[in-house]
Write a structure and sequence with these properties.
homodimer; alpha/beta; Aminopeptidase; Alpha-Beta Plaits; 6-stranded mixed β-sheet; 5-stranded mixed β-sheet; 33% helix
């Protein structure tokens, strides 16, 4: 009976909750220009690793925005990394404390690949690929709300992850305007090194364990399910970068006179890649998956209940096949070796008939529960060595190059492990219920997100439930050129954030 | 007996020939600054495909230089390509006519990879890699001859192939100064499109067949044997370029959320490369070599007599292995698929965790006798298709990309076939004897050069012997950054050129 009532509570929002959703929606409808201006302001701040000043400016601005709203806010310094923005607001009578995590840094940019400058927020009626967007965009000085919810704001980090910060701030403002108090004590942790692997975050967490203590972490990051159904996720794959350099001759050589006698490093790089992964994304390293923790029945069931998206995505992405036949979410439950890029010699009009001196390959490993960066690294290196490669960590000199047939320089990124947390904990059930009421629909529940956020770290340090709360559209070009946020996602995100601030109890 | 006398004539230069070599050497010793200034002047002219004006200026300058020397010279227009510089000088009483071929265009440049600007000729005491060279170079305004013959002049096309032109001009001037008449009628064909495959040259040859008629072509191109022994070659591999583009998703996708479900075009490109060639440079296409004409016993013998260079070259090039175990010259008798470069996504600090939208690979095929560009192309395409690729020649649209699992866009360069001509023809024997007298040593005789010059075309059109006369040092960084010419090679080249102008008869 108790269970039935709980189900009814999700399916038929109670009056107070309906009123809350209405209050938030009405406030948003009256403040669309202001909300977009806030996200634009944040997007304009050049918070990327290549621009330390941009990261500092962003942290300071976020600090000010939180203080304006009555939070006790401070910057937690992180040696060798941008500071963590921390803030706290106690709710009278609340028995639970919830930490809202997001990150304010964005991926590196290659401006030449963008249709507008990455840090000049540009509103367009749709995706560039749809033919609806032009480089100039909509003139927001003259655009009048209500804005078309299909409009998108383009700019680095507009989706990943400043949309989460903008939704948090707007939700808070909406609640305040409606005179609604939070139902939980709120803490904020917004970090600035997520896109480089959050290598310095754990030290900050451990160094401020009491300050950061809470009952639940809500991870505001990642994209919503491709069905555009409001989404929660209960874990994320881990991540580790690897830069490999493979060596050819000391100086570039004429490939007619020396080709097929002098080894070609681009061809060797191709062999290196195909030795690691097959054409279905399978990893060729023997025993690589022996540590992997299998999915539980509940996790398998949750995946089976997701709306099917594969056929639509193949059209959307313009791909005629997938790697593996398991479906998108099931595929991303596997460990992965991705190739982020490669470079050797020149192509096209600039191509010279020469054997290049070296080839560079950038890899991105995705880890699943049971794997650690250290054991992945060891398995990869052992395998490469067994294949006849000499592994080095600094540029080899001429004598070393002449002494070894296959040399690869490996530079590993720090990386972190994956997490799949319990979908059945009391906190998890409360979040599912609250978010469901705010969204007014059955949620997409993902046991683990394909992308990575360093949530294993929160689990390791705090031993509390970790739940992901993504709001960006899946087609936001996250990590690529023309990153964007669809306004409908921001509107929906504000409502779910408000629900989880003012209508969450367990 | 006749054969013995011929051998003695090579081994013990006759008086007149010794006097000729002395005359040329003495003239060169007195004119080193002038010879270097000439090569510098030519190197300064930006004769690369990206600079049509530079090509035109070079052709005009060469025309003037030949006219100054009493040649009947003209530019032969080539529709869609730089003009061919043609010149002719009749020698009283000569019964043979020899055409001296060279090319005045250079490979494309990537200035950022050079230690000095590619078209600013820079003299250095040795190779950059030797530690002897600095970026600034030797001040030639104050340097006094005799110059150290180990000095090198750096600049695009200084070695490939303006050194041949400079040697021709200096040899001619030396003979004139010594009052020595040529023993053959001389024709000059200097083209400007060799580095792009000489696609328009054959039409010029066929359109001017009578004007260009001769008894022998001497191909002034390519590097001397690595032993630094004066060299003749009797053929060259053919060449054909191929630019391949392999497609991933329409826009770059987060490789955590989509990696190992959405196909990765960089990984596909690696598979594409390894499907074509193995790690020993062997070509994996079944039947690819079925057309290949085997070496004759004489050709095999000539290769066996070459000074061994492999161990020294491995040290010089800093390579710990070779592709295949057959030795350098034997290896380059095979057909080859070289990778000139590849590009996808980004590497290093700019690498983003994204699946790239496409990957580009630049290939360079080297053909051997028996193969034609058309049959190589067909075999490659048939094989690729059998491997499941859809081959296109224009960018596929979104619908096509969604309909095919593996799409590759192929853009073939024109290309040309290989040639190995008869090492035992009367003309070949006369050239071997004359060059041997001028060089004063046993020559390195290569049945076929690994690099390509379009000499099959001369054979096709004129049906006369074709012999290669390379003078550039093998370590001239031909086709790469820091291309250079070693002065000792230029000095030796002048002597051999003079011998072949004034001491060649059959």
């Amino acid at each position: 009976m108790k269970k039935l009532l709980a189900v009814l509570a999700v399916a038929f929002p109670i009056g107070a909750q309906a009123a809350l959703v209405d209050d938030v929606r009405n406030w948003r409808a009256g403040h669309e220009a202001e909300i977009v201006a806030r996200l634009s302001e944040l997007t304009r701040l050049r918070s990327v690793a290549a621009d330390p000043e941009g990261l500092t400016n962003t942290a300071n601005r976020l600090l000010a925005l939180l203080k304006e709203r009555g939070f006790a806010a401070q910057l937690l310094p992180a040696a060798g990394a941008p500071p963590v923005v921390f803030a706290e607001l106690k709710a009278p009578g609340a028995k639970r404390t919830v930490t809202f995590y997001a990150h304010y840094d964005g991926q590196p940019v290659t401006p030449s690949e963008w249709h507008s400058e990455p840090f000049t927020p540009t509103m367009r009626p749709g995706k560039m690929e749809s033919g609806k967007g032009d480089a100039r965009g909509i003139d927001m000085k003259t655009a009048k709300p209500p804005f078309d919810p299909e409009w998108r704001l383009f700019g680095r980090a507009a989706g990943d992850d400043k949309s989460s910060i903008a939704a948090f701030l707007a939700a808070f403002d909406a609640l305040k305007a409606a005179g609604r108090a939070p139902s939980v004590n709120i803490k904020v942790v917004w970090e600035g090194e997520e896109e480089r692997g959050s290598a310095h975050l754990e030290a900050v967490l451990r160094g401020n364990r009491a300050l950061l203590a809470s009952d639940l972490w809500l991870i505001g990051d990642g994209p919503m399910h491709q069905s555009r159904t409001p989404t929660l996720y209960f874990g994320a794959r881990g991540s580790m970068g690897l830069e490999a350099v493979i060596y050819g001759p000391l100086s570039a050589l004429h490939d007619g006179h020396y080709g097929n006698w002098v080894p070609n490093p681009a061809a060797m790089a191709a062999e290196f890649i195909t030795a690691l992964r097959d054409s279905e994304g399978g990893i060729a390293i023997p025993g690589f998956s022996s540590d992997v923790r299998p999915l539980t029945a509940a996790e398998t069931q949750a995946i089976a209940e997701l709306p099917p998206v594969e056929a639509a995505l193949k059209q959307e992405f313009g791909i005629g096949r997938s790697e593996g036949a398991a479906g998108l979410t099931a595929s991303t439950m596997r460990p992965a070796i991705n190739v982020r890029g490669f470079r050797a010699g020149q192509v096209g009009a600039q191509a010279a008939n020469a054997i290049p001196t070296e080839a560079a390959v950038s890899f991105d490993f995705r880890l699943v529960p049971g794997q650690t960066p250290a054991n992945v690294r060891k398995k990869v290196e052992d395998y490469i060595k067994a294949k006849g490669w000499t592994v080095v960590t600094a540029d080899p000199d001429a004598a070393m190059r002449a002494a070894h047939g296959r040399i690869v320089k490996l530079a590993w990124g720090g990386g972190y492990a994956a997490l799949r947390s319990d979908m059945d904990s009391p906190a998890a059930k409360a979040v599912i219920a609250s978010a469901g009421r705010a969204a007014g629909t059955k949620l997409a529940l993902l046991p683990m997100m394909g992308g990575s956020v360093p949530i294993n770290m929160f689990e390791d340090v705090f031993h509390v439930p970790i739940i992901g709360l993504p709001i960006a559209n899946h087609d936001n070009n996250q990590h690529a050129a023309d990153e964007n946020l669809r306004l409908a996602n921001l509107w929906a995100g504000i409502e779910v954030y408000a629900g989880l601030m003012a209508d969450l109890n367990w």
